[in-house]
Write a structure and sequence with these properties.
Distance between the termini: 41 Å
Largest sheet: none
Strand content: under 5%
Shape: elongated
Structural class: mainly alpha
Helix content: 55-70%
Order of helices and strands: HHH
């Protein structure tokens, strides 16, 4: 499967993390998706701190971070109800 970068000239590392988060989210791999989200946030902070992102890119990736944070707020195994109760 081939993924194309956004016309905003996205960062390859961040785009790969976003793809991994989305795949794990869609496959209901809760722990892996949460871990990838934390890795994405750390990587975004690191790359933005080095000044390697334009303002447009920062805005795009921060929006994605906010979106996934809200979608995964209760996305844990702890909240999953057993089927037998």
């Amino acid at each position: 499967m081939v993924f194309f970068r956004k016309k905003t000239g996205g960062n390859r590392q961040l785009d790969e993390k976003l793809q991994r988060i989305q795949m794990n989210f869609e496959n209901n791999y809760k722990d892996a998706a949460q871990m990838n989200l934390r890795e994405f946030e750390a990587l975004l902070t690191e790359i933005a701190g080095k000044g390697k992102l334009s303002e447009t890119q920062k805005s795009y990736y921060n929006d994605k971070l906010s979106e996934y944070n809200s979608r995964m707020r209760n996305f844990t195994h702890k909240d999953q109800k057993p089927f037998w109760t």
